[in-house]
Records
---
Amino acid sequence: MDAFGSQRVNIKPPERGVFALDHDKECKSFMTMYLSCLRKHRDDHYYCRNESKAYLECRMKCDLMVSEDLSGLGYNDEYMTLSGESRANAKNEVPKESTGFISGTGVRTTNKWKFW
């Protein structure tokens, strides 16, 4: 028991989303390559997928994150082999993005609460 009669709560760290800091700068070269690639391609991460994969592999190798299969992180073979042209075609297949989607315009509901 803690002060004021409350019980102590065990806090678990998150499984994903928070990385340990790279104090020894073991993966700094991979990080700078990835960030420079992002700047070069105006923050479009698709073109920097090989750099981000190498960065994550370095972090796993240096025990800065939990080692797991990269296909679970979105680096499957299909995604890695798409060319820029096929990626652009895949983007245009979605009618919402190509026609200028406005959120909420397709919702048709009746108001069951009438106050007048």
---
Amino acid sequence: MLRFGGTVIKNVAGYDMARVLAGSMGTLGLIVDVSLKVLPRPRLEMTLRYALDESAALNALNYWGGRPLPLSASAWEGGQLMLRLSGSSSAVQSAAAQLGGEAVDARQASDFWRELREQRAAWFAASGPLWRLSIPSTAPPLQLAGEQLLEWGGGLRWLRTQLPAEAIRARAAELGGHATLFRGGDRKQGVFTPLPVAILAIHRRLKTQFDPAGIFNPGRLVAGL
């Protein structure tokens, strides 16, 4: 449940208004009351490590993702794939026996996933423009110059590169996704991928309905909105 100004926001015209408001980075309104669902910690977690190149890692992740395995996280960088299993002891142990790989020390694995989640890992500390590409996990390798880190089964691909924004966004679009300039770089062309005319029109109508006075973070997502 999510309330805005004391009113519960529900689905309207096919939109999940709670998601729209939460993902708008403060451009549509103010979230004042949120109810969260929490889940118990898994009985067992285990992290496995594999030496795989990017293409092989993507193939493996997509294959495993289609099987009934207790996968809870993945990360690939520099020829090394890390895979986390979470769930009941029997499920995790059975999956680990099927998947093979090298078991990672529990404390080392916990530190790795925490630093990755908080973006405090050494990979994120390096200088240079950092791009966040959201594309289908089944998409092939980016084949763009730079250094990469892959998460979410291949659906989230971090790219540190000096390539121009046009080249990065064109490749992301070719693969069925989009690219955001997450940190650094030249922001004259915008942080987010420019919206198609039809989608921009929807954004304008939403902004008008939610924020007719134009007081909530104007220009945060799209220039002029």
---
Amino acid sequence: MSVKVLFICSGNQCRSPFAQAVLTKMVKNGGGEDIVSESMGTISMGGESASSNAITVAKQMGIDLSGHMARHVTEDALEEFDKIIVMENNHRDAVLRMVPSCESKVSLLGSYVPYPMAGDEIPDPIGMDPMAFRTCFSTIIEAVQLFYKSILEEMEAR
């Protein structure tokens, strides 16, 4: 049985595509082939590339975002995915305004890290320097690793 994961941020140009790429790499290297993921944004117009800082910093961390094209989240997508992972509370709110019935599928990516974060949110580094992207992406890697582990445990328990 597959698990479909949707990562959501604002513009789908930084955090959510990075998280999706990290999870895809983990699945490729560590198993769980039945885990598939995509990313979308709550305010994306669709078709934008990843931000230049996101591409540069991601590449330094072994992730290629150069071919990414942003997509806007849709009601159909929200209904299709098993897990909807958001970066901020306002993303959760936008998702629930669109499809209130998917509340049980929505969680904050930051809630997977073992140390306290401001509301479990992963702040947007867009418009900031590359160090902000490195910090953000390091947090995303840690959170996705723990999220991935939780999915594998869930799949084993089935």
